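Two quick folds needed for the group meeting slides. Do the first one here.
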Amino acid sequence: MTVSQYRRIDRDHSRFRQIVRGKIKQNLKKYVKNGNLIGRQGQDLVSIPLPQIELPHFRYGPNPTGGLGQGQGQPGDPMDGQSESGNGNAGNTPGAHVLEVEVTLDDLADILGEHLGLPNIEPRGNKNILGQRHKYNSIRKTGPESLRHFRRTYRAALKRTLSSGLYDPNRPVIIPIRDDQFYESGRPVPDPETSAVVIYMMDVSGSMGAEQKEIVRIETFWIDTWLRRQYENIKVRYIVHDASAKEVDSHTFYHLSESGGTRISSAYDLCLRMIDQDHPPSEWNIYPFHFSDGDNWGGDDTRRCIDLLEHSILPRSNMFCYGQVKSSYGSGQFKNDIDDALGEQERLITSEIQNRDQILDSIETFLTPGF
């Protein structure tokens, strides 16, 4: 294949990817609402069905100038030597074509950012960890085999073999010796790494049903996708609570069901302990997210939650986000209480999610400030 052919293929591929990005962006709300991307997620790729892209196909119709199929007979009549089997007339409508394409999570985050007009996150305060990496920008004659420079080594061995008259074109074997070896050489350079921790908290009491948890699962997938695009290193921790709170893994977080009451302060107490013990604000960007249906056990516990937020959690966090999912059994009062008490706090964002149609609106509410 020639260079021009490669370039033409590359141009076609780039144009196809632009079409795919446009289709995803155009139908983003549908993909978010359905949640069908989550089950298709690989390590770094998401497989997306795109039924809107029409595949190339032949178009059949009458040929006024004659040709094949223009003789006597009617559509559906058997050909010579063919039996008259069949159970009806042939269809004349095209089938539905579903084309699946793979999109990286980074591309998906960029599409989300473009669609919602999200600003890039600028870490607050002194929360950058300065690491080190090796920059390989020179060559030397000694070094470990893992850093051997193949091209330079092969070139030196080839020159030596040719100059010594040992090269046999019928048996073109080049064997480097020690004097032919070249190795990459590097030096440590500062490499700033930004670390973030996301702490997801969810009410799993009896009033939070399967649909409410699915809404939370979809929303946190997209929030994760965006935050991982913004940070080199990100850690995710999960807290579930009813009347008491505990840390769990991601699978338990999305599938656990309880039947007890609700005491939100238990989750906030555990969140604060996590921050103080493992994630000092001087080294971490901290993003707690809490999802519930707004029910809480009594006004005293709500007042304790407000006190924990105002004096402990908000000062330690880049942003605290509370999402209230509509439930037939939840009162929805908690959002009203914290909005009334802490509505002026710039690090607090609250959102109400009535149904799946409002997931994208909630994500925009949470992420637009840029954290």
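Then this one, please, same format:
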Amino acid sequence: MPPSRQLAPKGNVLVLGNSGVGKSTLINAVIGDDVAKTSFGTSGTTKELSIYESPSVPFRVIDSIGFEPSPIAALRAVHAVRAWSRASAKEGNENTRINVIWFCVDGTAAKLFRETIRNLANAVRMWKSVPIVAAVTKSYSQPDRERNVAMVREAFHGTRIEHNLRAIVPVVAQTYVINDTAFAAPEGVADLIDATMEAMPDGLRGGAHDLQQFKLTRKRMLAQGLIGACVAAGATVGAVPIPIADTLVLSPLELAELNGLARLYGIDKDEDAKQFLDSIVQVGTASVIAHSAISAIKAIPGLNLAASVVNAIVAASIIAALGEGAVAAFEQVYTGRRSMRDLGWVRQLMEEQFGNAYLGKVSAIAEAAQGGGKDMRQMIIDLVKSAFLRREK
């Protein structure tokens, strides 16, 4: 008989929600790619449950089948969890108690039906005292969030699980592209983590330092997704026949990227944020940097690239370097190592970001793009991401 495997002393979060609400995207935003999908203790329930855990994550996530607005589908999910708990206990794993329930709600829905809440209440009868955190996915704007919170409160009001509802957290779990220069940046993931840990029993909350490091890692991953989307947009809007340095096409994209990253790190909420962000923008102004980048590319012997290709490379590279520099600056503030009131260090950081190393990367990208294949735009995007973006798990 194989030796019993003990589960780590961490909490268990059960995820319930209708199909299509974005549960998988939400779980990936919170847990990340460095995750093990476990199967022990789930014999006979693998079609109904997926259990995720990672050494860096302070809780285990138990994802159920689509919790459709019907009692049968809801009970299937609950029966699967019960089976998992019983099987795990037989294997000697005591830590199978459900500590928090994420109830995922589609933020684009016009209404959350009371029947859905009744089905939820029936489904969680065995966990009468377990706190519920409503995660409202696809909540893209401030008016949406206000409406979403009101919608959930109204649906829970007067039900027998109203007292279980501990928090309502609007979330954008990944960058949502609106058009070439407009994005809904990731938001609310750290708030969901905080609400989850606050609802956990005292012994499962972990240390403050470990939790901050975990949230910082998640922010880095989401920031990479936002910067990547902006790089793709930069390669598109930058592919103009006239020198990119003589146009203003990047200005809206630069501001969208910077503002999105600022919201992700909570930088925009501070009263000193405007001057701080202005300092980053001033150093990263595209028209100034583009002249140097284009000159560096033109100095490459034997290089023969169309003007639109050169402009696309320069535009995408500026967006990538600006985004990575901003993330480095925002992390300094987020972790308390630097202050937004002292602007000297952020100017120096951004100047270094666009120094000789930047010009060297741009030149290398241009050389690699020489004689590129059919999809030059995608090649440029891939080359720029590889050269500038950090890879976070």
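Slide caption for protein two: The domain at 12-210 is CATH 3.40.50.300 (Rossmann fold).
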